[in-house]
Specification:
The protein is of the alpha/beta class and 582 residues long. It has two domains: 174 residues, Immunoglobulin-like, CATH 2.60.40.10; 264 residues, Alpha-Beta Barrel (TIM Barrel). Helix 10 crosses helix 11 and helix 10 packs parallel to helix 12.
């Protein structure tokens, strides 16, 4: 949980954040304590550091000064459990051009305990042009949006006058070239080999502009509970270095795993024809596959789909890499149909030959994607035979609810659109589960939207999990949002030669997963505490919270205003947990 220190000034402006994107020049409601020099005593050449709320739909654009959605000064604070990831963000305004801007993190200390700086990472938030708000039917209008979390700001070059993007490609011999990434020709990026740096590189901030940065914390598994203090030093040519104070609170309790199953459509698979991989959503090198599965796990997605085909001969190696990444083996969602009724049982047995050696308990085969009408009904015999052979079935749906047709033959219904408690009750009545899908699909540059819709909204509606589309899926080249006539690329993290480039919306998704984990931790603490006054009070609070707007509109764009108090909800949960577990 990221905390901010609030000023008591009457000048604070409160602005509600609505689903439609609010861009700065508006002030965000969550502003930080002001701590700047008195007028007339400040060096006008010095940069100004603003503390920001990281998970918000308020956008920090280069030209938003003086109405930056944050306030100068104050302490940046984070709190998290052991092994948890947590984010914070800040922006730097440069009155004049700043070259060779460097950020250095110190070790963090709490008494004799040290939280090594190696557990914190810095990124620069890259604004670039994208082709609309909805990823499904874009309007092709170029919009400058903050999205990418880069270690090297120069990986993507943006021309705001021409409204173009270009991505740097690095050949195997080390030579580089920028390729256009905002036109209609997907072939313009053929041969692209993007490579980000391993640590934050120096950046240039143009005069009279704002640059946003991102801080990611991964708390060590053995960290002692307490509040650690350290700093980030900002330096550049011609300025006095600025120390940004940071406090990290490590909670004394352990964060429970979510009771929800977080999966995702993941089209990545090892290439049977080449070990080098591609810069695309599909064929991966082993290095890419391992990096991407680790990235999904780090964002709370423990059960990504398996798209590797049996015929490729690479299913065992894919499962080995998943094991190496740390993914659990109690269930596996396989993007493979059971086939005709006569062969459905055989298909289950063929897959079991692969999965049994890795200890998988349940395997799920995939029905026809979003099937309705006759094609949906025609699958009943195959699904029944797959279940008789010990397999399970999952399938997506949006046009027609498959409940009346399939009932318990569908073990997991991946239901499109806003969450609806009555749907959960319906599927639970036959012993099946319901996952959330397309609420929205991946790729909308709105972190708060993903945090709520794939976090507390799931819990309120009693959904069993999430499986949206997709970790990566391209309709042209995945690094170009403009080369498809109809759809924007669906992307939480962009592929590189040796890893991924993350996004702000992906960080929002992770916070949603963690919100649900804090609720699960509190529920566990209440149960263990028994009939105490604090347990009763916490239980009543959870009941009230769960009853607040549990049902959503089917279309995410038609849903009511997002809750603006997710941080205070988590803080309240932490307070109850601390009281119940001390």
């Amino acid at each position: 949980m990221t905390k901010t220190t609030y000023a008591t000034s009457p000048e604070l402006l409160i602005v509600s954040t609505i689903l439609a994107v609010i861009v700065c020049p508006l002030l965000h409601r969550n502003v930080l304590a002001e701590n700047v020099a008195e007028p007339g005593k400040r060096d006008d050449g010095q940069p100004v550091v603003y503390r920001l709320e990281p998970i918000t739909n308020v956008r920090v654009l280069p030209d938003c000064f003086p109405q930056v959605p944050g306030k100068a000064g104050g302490q940046l604070s984070l709190s998290a459990c052991r092994s948890e990831y947590e984010s914070a963000s800040f922006a730097v305004y440069a009155p004049r051009e700043l070259e060779n801007v460097r950020l250095e993190i110190s070790d963090f200390r709490f008494g004799k305990h040290v939280l090594p700086k190696s557990h914190l990472e810095l990124f620069v938030v890259k604004c670039w042009y994208q082709a609309g708000r909805d990823v499904m039917f874009h309007d092709g209008v170029k919009r400058l949006v903050p999205e990418l979390l880069l270690k090297d700001d120069a990986l993507v070059k943006v021309d705001t006058k021409k409204q173009t993007n270009a991505v740097r490609s690095t050949k195997e011999d080390g030579s580089t070239k920028y390729l256009p990434a905002s036109g209609k020709d997907p072939k313009a990026l053929e041969g692209l080999r993007p490579m980000d740096a391993s640590k934050l590189q120096p950046v240039t901030i143009p005069g009279k502009s704002v640059k946003q940065f991102w801080l990611r914390l991964h708390v060590p598994a053995d960290a002692a509970a307490g509040t650690y203090r350290g700093s980030i030093r900002l330096s550049a040519q011609g300025i006095t270095p600025v120390d940004i104070p940071v406090a990290v609170t490590v909670h004394a309790f352990e964060l429970a795993q979510s009771r929800k199953t977080y999966s995702i459509y993941y089209s990545g698979k090892l290439d049977p024809n080449s070990a080098k991989g591609t810069i695309a959503a599909h064929y991966k090198s082993e290095e890419q596959y391992l990096a991407e599965t680790r990235d999904m796990l780090a964002h709370g997605v423990r059960y990504p789909n398996l798209w590797q085909t049996r015929q490729s001969g690479l299913v065992p190696r894919s499962l080995e890499l998943r094991k190496k990444a740390g993914l659990p083996n109690d269930k596996l969602f396989i993007l493979s149909p059971p086939g005709p009724p006569a062969g459905a049982a055989i298909m289950v047995k063929l897959w079991r030959k692969f999965t049994d050696g890795f200890g998988y308990k349940d395997i799920y085969l995939y029905g026809l994607d979003e099937a309705s009408g006759g094609p949906l009904r025609a699958q009943k015999p195959s699904w029944a035979n797959a279940q008789k052979a010990g397999g399970k079935m999952f399938a997506s749906a949006w046009k027609e609810d498959p409940f009346k047709i399939m009932g318990s033959l569908l073990n997991v219904a991946v239901w499109s659109g806003g969450v609806q408690p009555e749907k959960a009750k319906q599927w639970h009545s036959v012993g099946s589960e319901i996952f959330s899908y397309s609420n929205p699909q991946a790729g909308v540059e709105e972190p708060l939207l993903y945090r709520y819709n794939y976090g507390l909204a799931l819990w309120k509606a009693d959904y069993d999990g999430a499986m949206t589309f997709a970790y990566q899926y391209a309709y042209g080249h995945i690094w170009n949002d403009f080369d498809s006539e109809r759809f924007r690329d669906h992307c939480f993290a962009y592929p590189t030669v040796n890893g991924v480039v993350g996004t702000m919306q992906w960080e929002g998704f992770r916070e949603g997963v963690d919100d649900v984990r804090y609720i699960a931790t509190l529920e566990k603490a209440i149960k263990k505490a028994g009939k105490t006054g604090t347990a009763r009070e916490a239980s009543q609070w959870l009941e009230k919270l769960k009853g607040e707007n549990p049902r959503q509109q089917r279309s995410w764009k038609a849903q009511k205003r997002l809750p603006e108090d997710l941080e205070s909800i988590r803080s309240r949960a932490v307070s109850f947990i601390n009281q119940l577990t001390r």
